[in-house]
């Protein structure tokens, strides 16, 4: 079960200020160790900002991987209400969730057409993103046999070498497809290095895709992801596909983040321990107290997506969290269900059992946590665990 499937339909409420509505899901607050907050208004604000930037191109939304861990159903509903008409997911199973929320939207499944699945795509009114000749042949055969007239996308590989038809196949395909109705509603490709706008591969991909667009005149085109949007109008085509930026991730690494933060994560402190000088903390005795220390035990671990690399060891500081308004370091190894935080520098009695440590939120961003743990914010988001109590505000 996805986290968003467990939303209580009776949990809507106006907050203490009487202005924002919240919906909760997942385990009950006191039955789990952490609270994940998702600001739907921030997500829709980010979408509107990107849509304004790329106009007159259309702005879609990528909601794969349970909307990057934020809940596909509530996120898709909020975006549809904001005016988003096109959604991208990875698979047909993900697409069905979006279709149930946005019955009039266009929904594309990026991972292609699995063998024998054409009828299921048609039944769900989902458009496969076709990236090989064998997929196209199967799609055409189904359309001919069933007389179904729904659409699909063609994905051309302009440098990723992952999915997609080759550029050499494009001219013959265009001649063949333009002579008949194959239901091609979109031609697309995918940037390799859009996070580095000055990388020359970006311009090579833009030029290669421009040639593809000319072959498929009149068909909607799409190249830009979140970071690609900021390369400029030459990358926009007719439709852009932001994902990470919608959820507050920085599409411009190394520069100020133009997006509004949308995610908060707080872990409950279940115990406070005094550790003597020379005492070790956690598995493997990876961290030793250099002097008497006070440790807060937080009920979030790697089973919740708070990765082991967030831990601190001798000579290597761990990730930072905020406790009682102060930045503190994670020390020792992250375990399956728990993390340990050095709160020695905090005033006496500043922290009590049941208080929360902020792991993401305030001035700790998903990109900060990614940098501290040697990964990317995309992985931080999509690792967010199913054990959290979730609160969506709008």
Structure description:
The radius of gyration is 24 Å and the shape is elongated. The protein is built from 11 helices and 21 strands. The chain starts with 12 loop residues before the first strand and ends with a strand. The chain is of the alpha/beta class and 394 residues long.
Record keyword descriptors for this entry:
disordered N terminus, 8-stranded mixed β-sheet, Lyase, Ornithine Decarboxylase, Chain A, domain 1, alpha/beta, 2 domains, 7-stranded parallel β-sheet, elongated, 22% strand, TIM Barrel, 394 residues
Q: What is the molecular shape?
A: elongated
> What would you say the CATH architecture of the largest domain is?
Alpha-Beta Barrel
Tell me the number of strands.
21
CATH class of the largest domain: Alpha Beta
Unreliable stretches, pLDDT < 50, 5 or more residues? 1-17
Beta-strand residue percentage: 15-25%
The helix/strand class is alpha/beta
- Total domain units: 2
CATH topology of the largest domain: TIM Barrel
Specify the CATH homologous superfamily of the largest domain: Alanine racemase
Mean pLDDT: 93
| Intertermini distance | 24 Å
Major sheet size, sense and barrel closure: 8 strands, mixed
Radius of gyration: 24 Å
Number of helices: 11
Proportion of residues in helical segments: 25-40%
Give a brief description.
With 394 residues, the protein is of the alpha/beta class.
Layout: helices, strands, pairs:
Layout: E1 13-14, E2 21-25, E3 34-39, H1 40-54, E4 58-59, E5 61-62, H2 64-68, H3 72-82, E6 86-89, H4 92-101, E7 106-109, H5 118-124, E8 127-130, H6 133-146, E9 152-155, H7 170-178, E10 184-188, H8 200-215, E11 220-222, H9 226-229, E12 239-240, E13 263-275, E14 280-281, E15 287-288, E16 293-298, E17 320-323, E18 326-329, E19 339-342, E20 356-360, H10 366-373, H11 377-382, E21 389-393
Parallel strand pairs: 3-21, 4-12, 5-6, 6-7, 7-8, 8-9, 9-10, 10-11
Antiparallel strand pairs: 1-2, 2-21, 3-13, 13-16, 13-20, 14-15, 16-19, 17-18
Helix pairs in contact: 1-3, 3-4
